[in-house]
């Protein structure tokens, strides 16, 4: 994606179906849905009307608010892609029935950043898949992390202590000292270095959400052992090579939500509709978001037309600068 290329960068949406394409058979006008819009493409969700492909759209039950539903599409689908396609975790609907089979499947999963949106959905899905134990790395949102993982290790204690804590958990569980699978939902600020020390060098698999070559502390030297399968999970693949998986998973999300076997991510509604988007982005950029998705109610925007930067003067300049550093930019109108 080109830097400073103006486009509507909203990718998560929830609302009523307003219209469908002529080939769409799964949805009707008026359906309550949530959807993942293809990043970098026109008609994003920071708008009154947005366009999403049918295969990445899913029906949501009446009991689920649009706000909670909007926390799900990108993060949940990315987590599913990481777990089931890239890390080859058994799918929840291929769960073994026999107890001895469950025991044979027992293998640990480390989720680095378990309180992030992608990490939290990965933990929820891993639980549905019968993965045990789930070891989560978290910090400020430790209590939330404990609702997701069997063990929570604090990243703020530093790399050596973190690695020692995980090794102690594995020993206590009677498991090998190195991990077979790691989902690194952070992929920066030391997570890559810690996971490199914890992964099984002979047969491990790691999924990252940011490319190590760009985010490792030592970008040149960072390298996985030859026998480690290292995948940079990329949600855009749900629109091409993994489109069928995206379709099936979206339908499964409907089932999980309807049966209340899945809930959204904790969220905060930022007041002011589209006028609040920059405020939310700013908090994300500053690392202030802890176990929270920022949600915008479009109807709170007020009059339609150009949405102006909220802040004036030097602050506005700082925000614009910060935005320019993002791998995307915020469109002011569509
Ligand atoms: N490759 C793709 O297709 C794809 C798709 C979606 C997202 N992403 C990327 O994936 C990353 C995660 O996105 P997200 O929306 O899930 O994030 P998010 O929910 O905004 O993440 C916030 C959480 O990150 C945790 N965190 C921050 N620094 C950490 C560290 N050093 N170690 C462990 N946890 C840490 C915090 O935990 P505490 O609150 O507990 O301190 C916080 O709760 C972002 O970089 C995003 O751009 C990539």
From TrEMBL:
Pfam families: ADH_N (PF08240). Gene3D superfamilies: Medium-chain alcohol dehydrogenases, catalytic domain, NAD(P)-binding Rossmann-like Domain. Keywords: Oxidoreductase. InterPro entries: ADH-like_N (IPR013154), GroES-like_sf (IPR011032), NAD(P)-bd_dom_sf (IPR036291), Trans-enoyl_RdTase-like (IPR047122). CDD domains: enoyl_reductase_like. Residues 9-62 form the Alcohol dehydrogenase-like N-terminal domain. Monomer. Belongs to the zinc-containing alcohol dehydrogenase family. This is Alcohol dehydrogenase-like N-terminal domain-containing protein. The lineage of its organism: Eukaryota, Fungi, Dikarya, Ascomycota, Pezizomycotina.
């Amino acid at each position: 994606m080109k830097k400073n290329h103006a486009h509507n960068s909203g990718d998560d949406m929830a609302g009523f179906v307003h219209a469908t394409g002529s080939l769409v058979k799964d949805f009707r006008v008026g359906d309550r849905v949530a959807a993942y819009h293809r990043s970098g493409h026109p008609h994003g969700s920071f708008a009154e009307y947005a366009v999403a492909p049918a295969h990445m759209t899913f029906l949501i039950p009446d009991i689920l608010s649009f706000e909670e539903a909007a926390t799900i599409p990108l993060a949940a689908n990315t987590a599913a892609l990481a777990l089931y396609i890239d890390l080859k975790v058994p799918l929840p609907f291929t769960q073994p029935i026999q107890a001895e089979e469950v025991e044979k499947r027992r293998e640990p999963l480390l989720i680095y950043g378990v309180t992030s949106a992608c990490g939290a959905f990965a933990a929820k899905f891993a639980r549905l898949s019968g993965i045990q134990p789930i070891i989560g790395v978290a910090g400020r949102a430790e209590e939330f992390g404990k609702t997701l993982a069997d063990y929570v290790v604090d990243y703020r204690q530093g790399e050596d202590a973190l690695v020692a804590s995980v090794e102690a958990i594995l020993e206590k569980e009677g498991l090998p000292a190195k991990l077979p699978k790691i989902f690194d939902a952070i992929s920066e600020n030391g997570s890559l270095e810690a996971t490199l020390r914890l992964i099984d060098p002979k047969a491990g698999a790691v999924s990252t959400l940011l490319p190590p070559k760009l985010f490792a502390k030592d970008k040149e030297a960072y390298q996985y052992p030859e026998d480690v399968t290292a995948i940079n999970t990329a949600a855009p693949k749900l629109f091409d090579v993994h489109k069928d998986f995206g379709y099936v998973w979206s339908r499964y999300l409907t089932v999980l939500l309807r049966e209340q076997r899945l809930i959204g991510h904790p969220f905060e509604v930022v007041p002011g509709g589209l006028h609040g988007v920059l405020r939310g982005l700013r908090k994300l950029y500053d690392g202030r978001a802890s176990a929270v998705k920022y949600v915008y109610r479009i109807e709170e925007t007020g009059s339609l037309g150009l949405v102006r930067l909220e802040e004036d003067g030097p602050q506005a300049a700082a925000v614009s600068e910060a935005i320019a550093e993002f791998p995307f930019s915020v469109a002011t109108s569509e």
